[in-house]
Design goal:
The chain contains 14 helices and 19 strands. The protein is α/β, with parallel strands linked by helices. Strands 10-9-8-11-14 form a 5-stranded mixed beta sheet. The chain has a 4-stranded mixed beta sheet with strand order 4-3-5-6. A 4-stranded mixed beta sheet has the order 16-15-18-19.
Length: 466
């Protein structure tokens, strides 16, 4: 099987419910092996620039333009750029490589629906700069920084986590949880910013009732946030652009003002996932993966700090099969959200032979699978086994871009015995296909309470008291 002349490799372990799955990591490895075998590899350097001047490099090699396999160069580089854009972030891509390939990539971002989506989100929405791909020999020097995140446990704090199907809040006193709560909601379809404001305030007030005072508030939510301002977030997709700009963009600054201007910090939920893992296991070099309504990713480096990377793994391609499931927001295929979330469970239900009521919401579909799992239903087990196989190949893919020694998985999808099957499947893939990596990393899965409330608790530690 090929994807625009990029050879796709059949995995040694096929997902039980998805025999057409073709892992990104195997396609990339095979491509690079073929390129090196020609003895005429053409170097390519990609440098992603962010608005603060940070620049992140990635180097690879492709076929010479005269090689019969060179037709696979475009899809190989385009998928790499997709990964880099959503893992690192950047409004400008500096490209050192063949001009013809650069032209094809520029056309992709200008003229295709998926390319324009990425360009708009990265340029106008997140970095507020025109998006561009520049072909140049003068690649800017790599530069970046990392900063400590959270771990402040003094005082009386509220932590919250805003997911696509529920919102969580915790009251924490000197690091001890005195209250935690989860409330079901459906924010994606809501068009009124005031609804979002009221719902978030409701959770904060409910947590505040269990504290003698509120010294600080920290939160996590899906999306990109800079200085507590909302740049882009799936939670607010239903809000019209004009209202997003006038109200949602500064929503958390408005909430902070209501609480008297106390220390307040909101960050991407993936970062808090990794922070929660690092705090729980007492280790650094952590890649966190949260499987909820969507997929969240976060990274704590070996120094225990976070970088300015986006780590939006929901949009990162993990399956190169051109007929792979399509993300409903970006319109792109094979992205993580369709493999590590409730959306994945929902699409695998009919494949597994499980009948669900028409129109049943995704959270209830997950509960159905979880209830069947408790009854030792083989159909439900196959869903989790499939996700585990996906995860093993995805972790190997992530390892080509991240330096981690610990993998933390959590989120509603991992609740119950299904979480054990997911880990078992991932370990099986890594031990067979990537034994060296398997020996280097450790898996961690929180207990049941931390799975559901760990992020809200970790979020409470984000602000530093004055």
């Amino acid at each position: 099987m090929k994807n625009n002349d990029l050879c796709l490799v059949v995995p040694k372990i096929l997902p039980t419910l998805d025999p057409d799955f073709r892992p990104a990591v195997l396609a990339n490895q095979f491509f690079r092996t073929q390129v090196r075998a020609t003895g005429r590899a053409v170097p390519v350097t990609l440098a992603l620039e962010q608005a603060d001047g940070s620049v992140f490099h990635f180097k690879t090699e492709i076929f010479s333009e005269t090689d019969p396999h060179s037709a696979g160069n475009f899809i190989y580089i385009e998928r790499l750029i997709k990964f880099l854009l959503w893992s690192r972030g950047g409004f400008r891509i500096h490209f050192f490589g063949p001009e013809k390939l650069a032209d094809e990539l520029q056309q992709y971002f200008r003229n295709t629906a998926t390319g324009k989506f990425d360009a708009n989100i990265m340029g106008a929405r997140i970095y507020e700069r025109p998006f561009e791909l520049v072909c140049t020999k003068n690649i800017p020097a790599e530069r970046g920084s990392s900063t400590p995140l959270g771990r402040h446990l003094d005082g009386c704090r509220i932590g919250f986590d805003l997911g696509g199907s529920d919102r969580k809040a915790a009251a924490v006193v000197d690091g001890k949880v005195v209250f935690s709560e989860e409330i079901v909601w459906d924010p994606v379809i809501q068009t009124d910013p005031q609804w979002h404001f009221d719902e978030i305030m409701d959770s904060l007030k409910r947590a505040a009732r269990h504290l003698p005072r509120v010294d600080a508030i920290g939160g996590s939510a899906a999306g990109a946030y800079v200085n507590n301002r909302v740049k882009v977030a799936s939670l607010f997709r239903g809000v019209p652009p004009d209202l997003f700009e006038s109200r949602i963009k500064n929503l958390f600054l408005e909430i902070q003002k209501v609480w008297g201007g106390i220390p307040f910090e909101v960050v991407n939920d993936g970062e808090v996932t990794a922070l929660a893992g690092s705090m729980a296991i007492g280790r650094n070099g952590v890649l966190g993966i949260a499987m909820g309504t969507s997929q969240a990713g976060g990274f704590v480096n070996s120094e225990g700090n976070i970088t300015s990377w986006l780590n939006e793994l929901a949009f990162v391609p993990v399956d190169y099969q051109p007929g792979a499931p399509v993300d409903e927001w970006s319109g792109d295929y094979g992205c993580g959200v369709q493999y590590f979330s409730q959306q994945c469970v929902g699409r695998l239900l009919p494949v597994a032979g499980i009948d669900a009521e028409p129109g049943l919401p995704l959270p209830k579909k997950l509960k159905l699978v979880q209830s069947l799992m408790k009854q030792n239903d083989l159909r439900a087990a196959r869903i989790y086994q499939t996700i585990g196989t996906y995860l093993g190949y995805a972790i190997a893919h992530y390892a080509d871009f991240y330096d981690f020694k610990n993998v933390l998985i959590l989120g509603r999808v991992t609740t119950g015995e299904g979480g054990d099957l997911i880990l078992q499947g991932a370990r099986q893939v890594l031990s067979l296909e990537f034994p060296a990596l398997y020996r280097q990393i450790s898996f961690h899965i929180p207990d049941e309470k931390d799975k559901r409330h760990g992020q809200a608790v970790a979020a409470a530690s984000l602000p530093k008291l004055d």
